[in-house]
Amino acid sequence: MRNLLAEILITLIGKYNMLTTKITFDLADWIREWRKCRNKNPSIDECIQFVQWKLEDYKISDSDKRIIESILIYESE
C-alpha cells in the first residue's frame, strides 16, 4: 500500500511546503484510525482539514486535493 501511495506522489523541491510522502502516510494512518473509532469514512473536507493542519500555512492546490481524494478512496472500504 505504501509503495502505491509513494508512486502517486510528486514532491516539489524548493521553498514551498507541500504534500510529502510522510504527510500522505500520516493521512492514510489518520483515515484508518478515524474509520476504526467512528466506523465510517471521514469526508474529503475533513481529510483536507487534517492536511492543512499538518502543513500549517500551506494553501492546498487542486492537485493536492486530487491526491487527498485518491488516498481517501484507496483507504475506504
How are the SSEs placed, and which strands pair?
Blueprint: H1 2-8, H2 21-38, H3 44-55, H4 62-75
Helix pairs in contact: 2-3, 2-4, 3-4
For the largest beta-sheet, the strand count, sense and barrel status come to: none
Number of discrete domains? 1
Distance between the termini: 14 Å
Strand content: under 5%
Topology, number of strands? 0
Structure description:
The chain is mainly alpha-helical and about 80 residues long. It has one domain. The chain is built from four helices and no strands. It is globular and about 30 Å long.
Structure summary:
This protein has 77 residues and is an all-alpha fold. Helix content is 66%, strand content 0%.
Task: Sum up the structure in keywords.
single chain; 77 residues; mainly alpha; 4 helices
